[in-house]
Amino acid sequence: MSSPEKIVSPLAAPVSSLWGVGEERARLLARLGIFTVEDLLLHKPRRYEDRRKFLSIRELKPAEPATVRGTIIAAGMKRFKKGTRTMFECVFDDGTARLHGRWWQAQPWMPDWFTVGREFLVFGKLEDDKKPRTFTHPETELVEPGEDEFVHVNRIVPVHPLTEGLTARVLRTLVWRALEKFETQIAEPDWSKLPVAGCRLQVENGKAPRPEKLATFNLQPSTLLPARANAVRMIHFPEELTDAEIARQRLALDEFVALQFQIQSRRKKFEAVSKALPCAGDNRLMKPFLAQLGFKLTAAQANVLREIRADLGGAHPMRRLLQGDVGSGKTAVAACAALMALEAGYNAALMAPTEILAEQHFWNFAKWFEPFGVKVELQTGSRKSGAGRGTGDMAQTSVSPVTRHSSPVSLTIGTHALFTAGFDLPKLGLVIIDEQHKFGVAQRETLVRKGNYPHLLVMTATPIPRTLGLTLYGDLDVSVIDEMPGGRGAIKTFVRTTEKLPKVFDFIREKISGGRQAYVVYPRVEVADTDKDIKAVTKEFENVQKALTGFNVGLLHGRIKPAEKEKTMAEFRANKIQALVATSLIEVGVDVPNATVMLIENAEHFGLAQLHQLRGRIGRGAHESFCILVSDAQHPEAQARLKILEETNDGFKIAEADLRLRGPGELLGQQQSGLPNLRFGNLAEDLNLIRQARELVARQGEFPR
Ligand code: ADP
Ligand code: MG
Q1: How many C-beta atoms lie closer than 10 Å to residue 697's C-beta?
Q2: Which of these, 633, 626, 687, 679, lies nearest to 656 by C-alpha position?
Q3: Ligand with an atom nearest the CA of residue 326
Q4: Average pLDDT per 10 consecutive residues for the chain, totaling 705 residues
Q5: pLDDT for 447
Q6: What atom of ligand 1 comes closest to residue 324's alpha carbon?
Q7: Protein residue with least CA distance to atom 15, ligand 1
Q8: What pLDDT score does 555 carry?
Q9: Which of 264, 281, 312, 558 has a CA 20 to 30 Å removed from the CA of 9?
């Protein structure tokens, strides 16, 4: 059987096939990631300028961006005596008034470009109403009257992302030419022709649809979007500014559908090849475990456990994401899930992002599971064997009452080291990954292929905004613990400047004297030469010791040896250390309920989600807790971000704000791979489109390409 010939779209032609793109321009375009005609057509404008109505220079008002059109009547470079600072200045005249354009750090090419007599479009804004009227660093475009003039004036024009040597005007011209030549070749994608998409180009009088006609999609809510070809034109040359947004949505929908198709077919393929191990268990360990736990599961925890049990007994291996804000009690859920697998005679593994956290889990689980004779092993980079505290004997004798099968089963806890070199647990039934956002998606995949498709439970405290949940984690089922265990003291958060630090330390002394403990967090391990303003633990440690004389202060950061880290944490847990000076290393999972104060300096250097994580280390006991964010940040945006933390403890609200402010890469951490490459889709804003795309693909079933 011969495979069908691959149809190559005309849009795949190299951009150099366009008139006006020679070797040099092709090289410049490549810098913008533009190699083909399609790349050029999908090069999203970074903003638009309404040039339908120009203002005269006389009409300009302070702080209102506007485009004027003027001829240069004077120009010159100014040098300043001190240093190498230069300024280029030129004066535009449009017959109504004069406007100065100013560029600090003048470029050498400027005097040759801005010459007297040339006419320019000038876009910028007045800072004040002082004379002379001045635009600082305006954007300009040389007016060269010619045949393509209508591309650049008397319409809304796009301003694309540029690179040095490529002007807005040139790029706009190229996009225009590409549209003229290729617009009719821009095909509707297959999905929009499917009956399930219900896309109908609206036809007038039985005639073929004209490009400006809108298409309706059979979506909820019913969506009116332009045909793709039309959207591509509209994104560059909209008739109204609102059209550009409509066009963006259409192009974004195409992206989200393609993404959902990928996600859903990956999941389907997975379900086709994998067979689930029966791991639902029979409660004989769970019952006594819950009885000795010391608290009753919250309704939310119990619900999640029901979902997990159904998965573990289902036909396909579990692929579940468990979201629960810091302190919501995910560990107890993990323990129960592990017990189900152990009851069923399978091994389980729990993977944590840091050694500290792996060790903490190990202590907890060993304490919990020991009484039932379940072997708990620890495997981290620095600690290879399972012979941890107290489990040594048992490890030898582990005739575990759980095993129906001849070999004993165990829970292995470790860091990612667990899943790299040669780790190969036989009969691995369940893999639990704690604090998923520290691992990449790719890592998640390689990891579970280790075994014979074990069940997978991924736990995260980063409340994942719905948009990301449906894209990045779209192939996982999602459970949410949306309820905090009762009996917790409230957390109060305050933002303060460094000026107030002495008072803050007085406050910490007072709390410590009252029997509580504190964290003091800094962004850096060591002071960097490049930025001396960012405080570092190694330097501040002494200051904190001085400020808290009479108490024991511990130090924790990534460059301390594991054994020492472990010792410090144990001492802090036992209240032999009252204050812990640390980097964000403690951000995940550390659980010391008696610690009720957290001071974070240079708070502006942390992401919102990260600060929320850090803050989650307190408020774990019955006492009231206090988080003090210290920052001298002047930037209003930085202040606004910290204010959000003062105002809310709701992780979802914070994550959504963070996604808006900093984008998904930052929210999920640097290591996060697998973020979709979207030109038009916006993961912070497009929940509705994402939902529609998901729904469309889900309804379609098999999806032709
Ligand atoms: P996280 O979800 O951040 O991992 P943990 O699992 O560490 O939270 O739980 C935080 C604290 O709450 C722990 O001390 C744990 O023992 C306690 N806890 C968990 N579930 C409950 C519950 N249902 N009732 C009371 N305390 C609970
Ligand atoms: Mg946890």
Answers
A1: 24
A2: 687
A3: 1
A4: 60 92 93 94 93 89 90 90 81 96 87 93 90 91 76 88 87 94 87 63 44 54 75 92 89 90 83 85 91 92 95 91 86 95 93 84 90 86 48 33 52 79 73 71 58 82 75 79 83 94 95 95 86 86 93 92 88 94 78 93 88 88 93 86 90 82 64 69 85 81 49
A5: 58
A6: 2
A7: 329
A8: 94
A9: 264
What is the best residue among 328, 354, 480 to mutate for testing ligand 1's pocket, by most ligand atoms within 8 Å of CB? 328
CB-based contacts of 540, cutoff 8 Å, min separation 6: 520, 522, 581, 601
Between the CA of 332 and the centroid of ligand 1 the distance, in Å, is: 7
Mutation choice for ligand 1 from 360, 438, 483, 591, CB with most ligand atoms inside 8 A: 591
**CA–CA separation, 131 vs 139, rounded Å?**
20
Write out residues with Cβ below 6 Å of ligand 1: 295, 297-298, 301, 324, 326-332, 461, 485, 589, 591, 593, 620
| Predicted structure pTM score | 0.70
pLDDT digit string, tens, across residues 26-72 = 999 999 999 999 999 999 999 998 888 789 999 999 988 888 999 99
What torsion, rounded to 10 degrees, do the Cα atoms 226, 229, 232, 233 define? -90
Write the single-letter amino acid at 601: E
Which residue in this structure is represented by tokens 């029997």? 515
What lies within 8 Å, CB to CB, of 492 at 6+ separation is 624, 625, 626, 627
Q: Any bridge partners for residue 100, and if so which?
A: 91, 134
Ligand 1 centroid vs 531 CA: distance in angstroms? Answer: 39
- Ligand 1, atom 23: closest residue by C-alpha: 297
Q: From CA 418, how far away is CA 378, in angstroms rounded?
A: 9
Q: What is the 3-state secondary structure (H, E, C) of 243-310?
A: HHHHHHHHHHHHHHHHHHHHHHHHHHHHHHHCCCCCCCCCCCCHHHHHHHCCCCCCHHHHHHHHHHHH
pLDDT, position 106:
80
Ligand 2 center from residue 358 Cα (angstroms): 10
Atom of ligand 1 nearest to the CA of 593: 14
